[in-house]
Amino acid sequence: MTTLPILMYHSVAADPDPQVLDLSVHPADFGAQLEVLREEGFTTMTFGEVRAALAGETELPARPVVLTFDDGYADFHREALPRLIAHRTSATLFVTTGWLADAGPFASGRPLDDTLTWEQVGDVDAAGVEIGAHSHSHPQLDQLPGDLLREELTTSRELLEEQLGHRVTSLAYPYGYSSRRVREAAAAAGYQHAAAVANTAAGATSSTYAVPRLTVDRSTDLARFRRIVAQQDLGALYLRQRVLTAGYAAVRRSRSAARTWCRLG
């Protein structure tokens, strides 16, 4: 099996909240990116469809690519969805259930910008976009004790399944952070696979519960986008992000070990 690019988006907005500006993509740029995929003969897949391919159960198309969107910002319904439909493009939206605008008594966490309503999540699902979970309150899952970790993973899946009326088996870790304990908890919570970040291409050797994705953000011009989807020089393109990720991982491991020591002490 060849490798494939799994792209990670967040906001698609002309004027997003400053907190998500760097991770956002302008709607015009997003439309141009979809045009690149069409012109260059890419076939889009959902994250769920990739699971079967990674497991060797199905074959990949000649030029596969996966578009994923994290958090569940309101601009997905307003800006991204119409463009995806117009281009007949498959995608996956990972929803932070506690962040939804009408989460009501289940509201949890602090969304960084306006978010979808449950009705809009239903619209997105009905349009053929795969809906996955992105935890309930968007914490750093690898820093949570076992009971809170299980609650974050099960609450988001159960709420989505109740609202949508079908199974939800895809998960994306908030911030891309996971650990062996988190990955085992994701499997135990009923997810079939999960997305990390890693900023490398996915392939047959990718862990089922830590499938890597490639960041697309405000700094991604069309030249860079073409290199990303062509998987050209990914190490150089994402060198800074990889160095930062390695540093954050070391810090989180230290914090987790310290918490464990405190509980044992």
TrEMBL record:
Keywords, ordered alphabetically: Hydrolase, Signal
Entry-linked InterPro entries: Glyco_hydro/deAcase_b/a-brl (IPR011330), NODB_dom (IPR002509), Polysacch_Deacetylase (IPR051398)
Keyword Hydrolase tagged: yes
EC top class named in words: hydrolase
Compartments where located: Secreted
Keyword Hydrolase among UniProt keywords: yes
UniProt-listed Enzyme Commission number(s): 3.-.-.-
Sample GO molecular function, one term: hydrolase activity
PANTHER family linked to this entry: POLY-BETA-1,6-N-ACETYL-D-GLUCOSAMINE N-DEACETYLASE, PTHR34216
Annotated protein name in UniProt: Polysaccharide deacetylase family protein
